[in-house]
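User: Can you fold this complex?
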Amino acid sequence: MSENESKQDRARILILDDEELVTTSLKSFLELVTDYDVVTFTSAEAALAYVQKNHIDLVISDYLMPEMDGITFLSKVKEIDQQATRIILTGYADKENAIKAINEVGLFQYVEKPWDNDNLKLVIRNGLEKRRLMRQLEEKVEEIRKAYGDLQGLHREILKAFA
Amino acid sequence: MQKPSQFDDTPFIAFAAFARAVSTETDHQRVLNQVLEFAMRFWGAGQGLLLQCDRASTEFRVAAVKGLSKKAVQNILTSQKSVLNEVKKRGKLFLMRTAGGTRETPPAGKPAWSSVTAAVYIPLHFREASSDILYLDKLVSQPSVGEETPALFTDFAVLLSQLLERFYLRAKMTELGVDAVGSQSLNVAEIKRRQAEVEQAIDKLQKSQMQMMHSEKMAALGALIAGVAHDINTPLGAIISNNDTVKRSVEKLQQLLKKAGGLSSEKTETLLNLLELIRVNKIACERIKNIVRNLRIYTSMETVECVSFDLHKGIDNTLRLIAHLSRDRIKIRKNYGKIPTLCCVADQLNQVFMNILVNACQAISGKGQITITTYPAGRKIHIDFEDSGSGIPSEHLDKLFEPGFTTKEAGKGTGLGLFIASQIMREHGGAIEVESEVGKGTVFKLTLPMPDDSK
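Assistant: Here's the predicted assembly.
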């Protein structure tokens, strides 16, 4: 595979679209050309329930859905998992509304229907990269915080020693 | 038929003169007074009363009075009411002899023919909603009370009716704002002018109504197209994606087979066939995608980006795309002038060029030529596309930019090409015009506003 990720590091992608033909197309493509673990849903409620219980790296949602629009869905995903990269799939007609909402909710990207496979793949890869970098950043910050704590402890001990 | 009057026709000549005089009179009351006075003089009456009554009413109003006191008038109105209404109803004059009645001095110059005093009620009938009654009393010059008398009275009544009717009509028209004062007959030229004005107004109204219906139709069509475009996109997206995925799968299969060394020529051929079909499918999908995109541009579903655009390059690119239509038979002549690059939606303008050029090529049946001329003029950039094609019949010119108008056979044209072109030009602040002569060719004249930074 083009992505050099080991089995346990496989990124998990959730796709939500009320139309099964879209989720199937996306899943088939991604499974062929990538190593991602792709889960698909046609119901927002079911998808949210899945996000609650499972670790997700990236979420792709359709914009116009009968049950719940994509922006609402993605903002709920954010409440559950701050770090998951969120991408919206929009038709032409709702592009303007979608972009406005994107800025409000803070999404990673929007992808237009009909989408281009290569472009979509790239967007997903960048999204996952961002997710990975964010996680790394968090780890580093945590390390620094820990090191700083250690340093302060050391500092106190030194002061004590010279007192 | 009436027998010819035994009287001298001098009174009628007098009447004609009177009528002429009255016809230029504009004061309502004065006319009524003059009518009464004339009638009295005509018949040598000492007293006269002109009464008016609406057709549906039985109450009479005094229009003019002479030689009668207010009380006497009131007396006539009440005591003679039934007579008046009878006269009005029957429409026949009524001669009432008042034998032995008081008789006053006859007006000067009138011979006292008879000592018989009579009152006469002369109904004057109008086509309109009212009728008048002329009451004359103390007739001193009463004509012979023979058989002819009523006939003469009737003739006179008819003449007076006509005179009054014409006057009333004139007054009414003045009231309605029809300017016909000062002329006996209505000013024909004036009537014609006003008629033309009314016709113009009606025409304008009809046109704006048509425009309204047209724009309503447009709005409905726009909504329909937007809906269809949206509905097509999702399945189209799936097909495009799947086609691509299938292609990748086939390629993967190809590699796997090659690695396994099991790639026979038959297998290779089958896989190549598959890839060829996938390639064609992709082209077909692109076409659908473009159609949807073009429709979207028209319904402004897409926010479009303006870029700096070299019109000449755009035209050249378009010509290259339609080279298969023009190839050996059509000579393309370019008279490119010095025009600045524009900030515009390149795709859209290319689409305009495409629509016009394809039409031009199709209009030329055999050999011919297309001349493309660009030049700046004032604050505008002009782009003319002239073809030596069959031309457009004048009855089609008006409808040329209407959606759905096409002269191409079913399936060959959507009738949207020039409509979309005109929409695009309008959105760019420009315009599209057409001049055509059947048998000679057509010129499509495009204008675009000159960009602000170039003078």
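DSSP finds five helices and five strands in chain A. Helices of chain A lie at 20-33, 44-53, 70-80, 95-105, 117-162.
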